[in-house]
Design a protein that fits this description.
Layout (H helix, E strand, L loop, with lengths): L8 H10 L7 H12 L4 H10 L4 H10 L11 E6 L2 H5 L2 H12 L12 E6 L11 E3 L2 E3 L4 H12 L18 E3 L2 H4 L6 H21 L11 H10 L6 E6 L8 H8 L1 H15 L3 E6 L7 H13 L16 E6 L9 H8 L23 E5 H13 L1 H5 L9 E8 L5 E6 L4 H7 L5 E6 L5 E4 L17 E6 L4 H15 L5 H18 L5 H17 L3 H5 L2 H9 L2 H4 L13 H4 L1 H6 L14
Length: 599
């Protein structure tokens, strides 16, 4: 009998119908399937493959690629502790051990009764209010021993998440310093009306006059990007908001999405008006699942006030609407072509470029991909003009920058400064006393030592997507670099050998040094691997994966040297220790049963 006609349809058919049985929505269909069933069983894989006219292997490949999809039972409560370096600084390891002990589980293990599984994940975007964890994709902040004990009791009592204390899920903005974006009031539709008054070409001229560069990290001039997409051949165009904020230590987009979503959606609508797009897509990272319903409600409110939909603001033919797609735990999808692959319902592997998304993006059509902060700031340029915006900041870095400040400081949170602010000023403002190092730009960014605190946040000096992690005198920069490299290994998509193998080798070398078996050989190998990764990797993830090691080797070498206990090369694999189970079976532990002894 056809799988499509089986009784399973009672669960899956409403989901499939909601997405018009469109295979490009496979990610969303899988997410909703898992939310209903707690995991994606093999019968569902087959059912969805037939219903969407896909090969079964295509569906399975998507499940296997994303960390938040499970094709085997992982418990009614799926706990993932955030394991970013700032969570470690806040004591997440002890809290993880406490919960594992409460349930008698090993990390990654599912309880025998199928109730719970406990593991780790990468940064959840809560560095200013951690340690944090995800339970069934919903965020719990400000973990403590007491809160862990309460969570364990709620799980043992099988209390539904909706009945858990609301305080557990409280997420604060923690805005500490406001400048033009965070302090400017905007009436919904005001910036859009101004853009319509200017016309598509006039609004584009304002964007170009502002010399406004994208805030996602690459810093490409936004007006030029919009212009290339506008002039690309073809009728259908798309605007994509990259809200896959996965860089460790970054949470500014979380705050904008939470409290300034109208501004983001208005910026997308302005971009759509300029380039002639009729559809916008928000790619929201899986860790921000808790925002989905609120964002959907904001979109619906905009439709009701004629700020989305057909003939927006009464302009005949100005049709534009927005839909939200959820990610499922893949850092590499922050890269724009990997994000587009994911939007199309595929594993998020970066594409070979050229062609670029502005000419061949979503579904092969011209597509503008902009970061959350970029789109929010486009509304300022619409309101106040390109010349005004160009007067802020520095010559090649106009305007302001939002920074996500976390780590060893009294006031972690969001800070907005004009470009050109010095590192020392930020440290003073956030209450970072005795700072030894600052990691700017996340794991893929730049590590600065104390003598560099006079440098500036700007494309001319230190560029950043927004992460600003502070490390005090008591921190071990070797362990910081080790955490970052393990992150890159975990998040590598496996597409290219330099990244897939190189990140693994670099992790192995750092682990070997940490275990007291490092020598000058390993130090030289780390430098060699850095060169290989940075020059031979396919995308930015691999190209930057060795940067934390290279920076800390240059600036904090003693944290490595003190671990070098041997002069000559020592194998990391202990063959004699590996033979211990065999000796136990043979009931021998005499000298002759050990390697390195005379028989």
């Amino acid at each position: 009998m056809s799988l499509v006609n089986s009784s399973a349809g009672g669960v899956l058919e409403p989901i499939l119908e909601r997405y018009s049985r469109n295979p490009h929505y496979l990610m969303q269909i899988l997410r909703e399937t898992q939310e209903h069933l707690d995991f994606i069983p093999q019968w569902a894989v087959g059912y969805l493959a037939e219903a969407l006219a896909l090969e079964r292997t295509q569906v399975q490949a998507v499940i296997d690629f994303y960390a938040f999809f499970y094709d085997s039972p992982h418990g009614k409560y799926r706990i993932l502790f955030s394991d970013n370096v700032t969570d470690r600084m806040q004591g997440n390891a002890a809290l993880l051990s406490r919960m594992l002990s409460k349930f008698g589980l090993a990390q990654g293990q599912v309880s025998g009764d199928g109730l719970v599984s406990i593991d780790t994940t990468s940064c959840t975007g809560m560095c200013d209010q951690g340690p944090a964890l995800l339970v069934n994709s919903y965020t719990v902040t400000r973990l403590s021993s007491q809160r862990i004990d309460q969570i364990c009791e709620l799980i043992k009592g099988q209390t539904p998440l909706k009945e858990w204390p609301a305080e557990f899920f409280r997420v604060e903005d923690n805005i500490r310093c406001k400048d033009v974006l965070l302090s400017t009031e905007m009436v919904n539709g005001q910036a859009l009306k101004r853009a319509v008054e200017l016309g598509p070409q006039g609004m584009l001229a304002e964007m170009k006059a502002s010399n406004f560069r994208g805030r996602g990290g690459a810093g490409f001039t936004t007006g030029v990007k919009w212009e290339v997409c506008k002039n690309a051949p073809g009728e259908m165009r798309y605007v994509v908001c990259n809200a896959d904020e996965g860089e460790p230590g970054t949470f500014k987009d979380r705050v904008l999405l939470s409290s300034f979503s109208d501004r983001i959606f208005e910026g997308m609508t302005i971009a759509g008006y300029v380039i002639g797009a009729s559809k916008g897509l928000v790619y929201l990272r899986g860790e921000y699942r808790y925002m989905l319903e609120k964002l959907q409600a904001t979109l619906e409110a905009r439709r009701k006030t004629n700020l989305l939909g057909k003939d927006i603001l009464g302009q005949k033919g100005f049709d534009f609407d927005i839909e939200i797609h959820m990610g499922a735990g893949a850092y590499v999808c922050g890269e724009e072509t990997a994000l587009i692959e994911s939007l199309e319902g595929k594993p998020g592997r970066p594409r070979i470029r050229p062609p670029f998304p502005v000419t061949n993006g979503y579904l092969g059509k011209p597509t503008v991909v902009n970061n959350v902060e970029t789109l929010a700031k486009a509304t300022l340029i619409a309101q106040k003009g390109g010349t005004w915006y160009q007067s802020l900041g520095m010559k090649l870095s106009t305007g302001t920058k939002l920074l996500s400040v976390s780590g060893d400081c009294d006031r972690p949170g969001i800070y907005e400064y004009p470009f050109g602010v010095r590192i020392a000023q930020i440290l003073e403002d956030c209450g970072a006393r005795n700072a030894m190092a600052v990691q700017v730009g996340g794991a893929a960014g730049t590590c600065l030592a104390r003598h560099e605190f006079g440098r500036k946040i700007a494309f001319e000096d230190i560029s950043t997507s927004g992460s600003f992690m502070v490390f005090g005198n008591n921190r071990d920069m070797f362990e910081v670099a080790r955490n970052f490299v393990h992150f890159f290994k975990h998040e590598s998509c496996g597409f290219c050998t330099p990244c897939r193998a190189g990140t693994t080798l670099m992790c192995d070398l750092l682990d070997k040094i940490a275990n007291g078996k490092g020598t000058d050989y390993e130090m030289n190998e780390l430098s060699r691997l850095y060169q290989l990764l940075s020059t031979a990797s396919h995308c930015g993830l691999g190209q930057s994966a060795g940067r934390p090691v290279n920076d800390t080797l240059q600036k904090f070498r003693p944290s490595y040297d003190r671990r070098l206990k041997q002069k000559d090369f020592v194998p990391a694999f202990d063959l004699d220790a590996a033979l211990a189970p065999a000796r136990e079976i043979m009931e021998r532990d005499d000298i002759g049963a050990h390697l390195g002894t005379d028989l």
